[in-house]
Amino acid sequence: MSSAPDCARTSLxxxxxxxxxxxTSAELARHTGTCASCRRxxxxxxxxxxxxxRIGAEGMDPRRADEMRFVLMEGTRAPRRxxxxxxxxxxxxxxxxxxxxLSGAMALYVAVSEPRAEEEPALTRLKRVVEPARPSRExxxxxxxxxxxxxxxxxxxxxxxLPEPPVAVTDAPAQVNSRATAPVDPDAAxxxxxxxxxxxxxxxxxxxxxxxxRASNIDAARRGEVLYWAARSxxxxxxxDRAAARYERSLRVAPxxxxxxxxxxxxxxxx
Amino acid sequence: xxxxxxxxxxRKSVNDKRLRDLSDEALVAAAGAxxxxxxxALFERFxxxxxxxxxxVVGGRPDIDVEDLxxxxxxxxxxxxxxxxxxxxxxxxxGIAANIARTHRRGRSRRFRFLEGFQSxxxxxxxxxxxxxxxxxxxxxxxVKAALEAEPLPxxxxxxxxxxxxxxxxxxxxxxxVSEAAIWKRVSETRRRLREAGGSEDV
Lengths: 271, 203
Description:
Chain A is 69% helix and 0% strand. Chain A has twelve helices and no strands. Chain B is mainly alpha-helical. Chain B starts with 7 loop residues before the first helix and ends in a 5-residue tail after the last helix. Classes of the chains: A mainly alpha, B mainly alpha.
């Protein structure tokens, strides 16, 4: 009999799982008809089963899941691609040195050493490096872009403006501005920004996320997440200083968040 | 070759279908080889079971970010964890998640764990303040949930895997790296405690 309770317990699990066979069920029914302890255990298990199934039954929030999947995929893709590109560019630098001398090789070498910006073609990075007069024009260009009218954020009829959290603003006034704006619909605005980001419209995405980060009706956790995606958008556009400022602020503002690991890593790359 | 001429959209939809049709083992192999789309597909396939498992094991506390633990689980895979094929892919992934949950728990100070245990016990006491009241399902659920959260992590994980995720004792043993007998012992003990906490009425 000593093996029967073990067999019954194994069968008990099978019985409770979907798809237990007829033979297993019959064996269990015979055994529990005579074994009081196994009968009691089966009754307890059945009584609890429906109850505990309700605990934590929801899956991930689909939007968060979409963001996380994106970050995981780029984390898989980027290191390999950058590794291949680095090797290719290093080989090209060696060839360039033979034909053009030191200046050509240095230009390519610097392009290899540049921290990668998301989806910025290597040729664009190279142009940015070999034309040193460009950076100031690029900053002007970025600032002019900021002055262009941004798409309005979805607004809500809502409560009075809440006081802005006391966070120090360490970057230029035109960038991360702590002035509170009217209440917005955070979910709708985030979806707009996320779609723009995924569609490669980084200027639009940065504008939306920047404005959403100043909304009065979002909590610290959400604000941090929005700042993270604002930073991602600015980084994708090549605005490294703005991106770094937003990464720093996102880590300061939010108490937690799955995106923090990536934010810290990207901030390190930018510094 | 004309086969190389694809519209991006067509290539993506063909790729998605290809990934959906892949077995778990093939998907893990592709992800391990650095296929980003395979990583995405693997995440889509297992994100909800992992999220539910981690929520049930460590969730219910405002200071724990279950989404972060989910990300950590898949980051382990992305960063090169090797699937040796000895168990099912789901068992392997749940094993990673269980390690993440254990590591997360060990990383917190004893002082906070004591406070949490005190809070869980207090919750039970509060819920049981009026024993004369007739229990409805929501109250029983709250009791059972609190009792589950008060269980030690090893017992809680065994119970969640067997009773809530539907694993066999053998699979759960492979996830938690303990024997089948140990799994049964933990599940039985937890079941007994939850039954006591929730009352013996049928649902």
